Amino acid sequence: MKLICPTLLALLGSLAAQSTPSYDFSFADQWAAAAMTKHKLTGLGLAFGKEGRLLYQKFSGSYGDNTVIPLASASKLISACVLMAVIDDGKLTLDDTTGQHLASFTGDKGKITVRQLFSHTSGLDDDRLVIALKNITLAQAVDYVGRNTPLLATPGTEFSYGGTSMHVAGRICEVVTGTDWEQLVRSKLSTPLGITTLDYQGLGATQNYRIAGSAQCRLVEYRRILEMLAAGGVWGGKRVLSAASVQAMFRDQTGGAKIVSSPAPAGTRYGIGCWLDRRGPNGEVLQISSPGAFGYTPWIDLERGVVGVVMVDYVNSLIQNDVWALQASSRAELPFLGAACYGVGTALCGTRMRLLTNEIPAVGSPSFAFTGEGAPPGADGMLLVSAGSSVLGWPLLGVRIHVAPPVPVLLAVRADAAGRLVLPAPIPAGTRGAEVFTQVLWAATPTCGATGATGASSGLAVTVQ
Questions:
Q1: Residue 192 sits in the same domain as residue 221
Q2: CA 465, CA 456: separation in Å to the nearest integer?
C-alpha cells in the first residue's frame, strides 16, 4: 500500500470513530424540514428503529412525544395483529367463513373467508356509511352488512380496497372470543407491548369501532408494534404473535384476484392488513406498509430489519411521493439485516465515509461483498478484518480501533476516483452465526506533515444470517 505520508497512523488523530452503532440521519432531517415547508404542515413526527432500538426520532411543529393523532388506514396493520392473536389462541382460522360465526351472512356471503375479509378479496361492496355511523355498535353495523350490503364479485376473485370487509372480521373476533373489540386490542396487543394510548376512537367516540380506520396512538407506541412484527412476533423477550402468524401477514393473501380498485402502485399485492410494497427477484417480500388516508405511514424494511413511521395528519395522496422518496433514501443509508454501522457519522475530507454490504450476509451467498462510499477519491487506506463483532475497541490517537480475537487481518485498499470501494467476500456454507468486524481507515493530505491533514473512517459489524 503506497501512502502519501510515511505513516497512516499519524493522521488518525483527525478521525472520530465511535464505539456504539452510528447512522447518519441527515437525510431524514432534511426530509422533515422540506416536508414541513412544502406541505405547510402544522406538525410532523418521524422515527426509525432496528432490533428494538430507536435509531432516530424527530418531531416538528406542534407535534411531540405525547401527540396522539388518527391513523386512518394505518389502523389496518394494528387490527391484523389482533386478528392473528385470536387465531394464535385457536379461536379462529383464516379459512373460517362468515357463515360459521354470523347468522346474517348466508348464501354466497356466508362463504366469505376471514382471509378474504382481511385481504380485500371478499367481494363485498364497501358500505362506508354503515361502518362510519357512531351511534350504533360494531355488532349492529355488521348485522346490517350481512343483511343488506351486496356482493359485487364472487369471493376471492377480485381485489377491491376498502374497510367494510375488515369490519366484518372484527365482529367475528368479538363473537368467537366473547370480548369487545377494544378489550381485545388491550389484552392481545396494548398490554403485552406496554401501550397506553391506543384505542379506536380516532374518528370520534363510538362502539362501532372502525376496524380498518379509526385507531389512534402515539408514534412511539406504533413503532413498538412494528418492532414486534420485525422481530417475528417477539417483544421484550416475550412472544406476542407466533412466527407463523407474522409470516402469514407478510405473504400475498390475494390468491391472484383481479385488482379492480387499489390506491397502491399497479400490481402491488396485499397480505393480512398490509401492502407488500417491494419484492425481490424470487418474489420474496422486501417491505410492507400500511399507509393511511391522512398520510400516516408505517413500514417495515424486511431486508434491513428497519421500521419507520411518518406521523402526519394531512392528505396521503399529496405526500405519498415524498414518503416513497424518504424510504428510498433510508435504503441507501442503512445497512442490511445482520449488519450494524460504527463511526459512519465521521465527516472529514469534505466527505462522509460509510462501509456497508451489498446484500444481507446470508450463509452460502457467493455474491456477498463489502462496499464503501464517501472515501477520499483515489485514497489509499487499510481495512481491519476481525473474526468477531467486538465493538469495545481500543483508542489510538483519538480513534477507537475495533478488534476481536484473533489479531485482525490488515488489507491494503484503495478508493476509486469516485471514492468507492468494493471488496468481494463470498460467504461459505456452514457459517451461520459467524461474526466479522471490519473497519476501513483512509488518509489523504497534500504533503507529509502539512496542516489540515484529513481522513475518514467507518466500521461494520456483520453476523451471517
A1: yes
A2: 29
CA angle 228, 233, 238 (to 5 degrees): 85
Residue 171 and residue 197 share a domain: yes
Q: How is residue 370 written as a grid cell?
A: 463489502
Q: 342-365 burial string, b = 16+ CB within 10 Å, else e?
A: bbbbbebbebbbbbbbbbbbbeeb
Of 82, 164, 93, nearest to 123 by C-alpha is: 164
Whether 17 is covered by a domain: the verdict is: yes
Residue 13's pLDDT is 33
Q: What integer best gives the mean pLDDT of the chain? A: 88
Sign for the pseudo-dihedral over CA of 397, 404, 369, 300: negative
Give the CA dihedral 457, 324, 292, 264, nearest 10 degrees: -140
- Regarding whether 130 and 259 lie in a shared domain, the answer is yes
Last residue of a domain, one of 308, 333, 358: 333
Share of the chain above pLDDT 90, in %: 73
User: Helices (H) and strands (E) in the chain — how many of each?
Assistant: 12, 25
- Identify the pLDDT of residue 353: 75
What cell was used for 358?
Answer: 451489498
- Ramachandran assignment for 141, one of left (phi > 0), alpha (psi -120 to 50 degrees), beta (any other): alpha
Could you say which of 268, 302, 333 is where a domain stops? 333
Going by C-alpha positions, the residue among 239, 190, 232 that lies closest to residue 215 is 190
Instruction: Report the alpha-carbon distance of residue 442 to residue 136 in Å, rounded.
Output: 67
Query: Which residues of the chain have a pLDDT value below 70?
Result: 1-19, 344-351, 388-407, 442-457
Residue 216 CB contacts under 8 Å (≥ 6 apart), including other chains: 68, 69, 70, 71, 197, 198, 199, 200, 201, 202
Domain span at residue 354 reads 9-23+337-463
Cα gap 85→159, rounded to integer Å? 25
* Whole-angstrom Cα Rg for the chain: 25
DSSP string covering 189-217, please? IIHHHT--S-BS-TTSS-BS--TTT--EE
Amino acid 22: pLDDT: 79
- Closest listed residue to residue 62, CA positions, set 38, 39, 46, 45: 45
Q: What is the per-residue pLDDT across 126-137, written as a single tens digit (0 to 9) for each?
A: 999 999 999 999
CB 277 within 8 A of CB 324: no
Please give the torsion angle defined by the CA atoms of residues 3, 4, 7 and 13, in that order, rounded to the nearest 10 degrees: -120
Q: What pTM did the predictor assign?
A: 0.90
Residue 113 in any domain: the answer is: yes
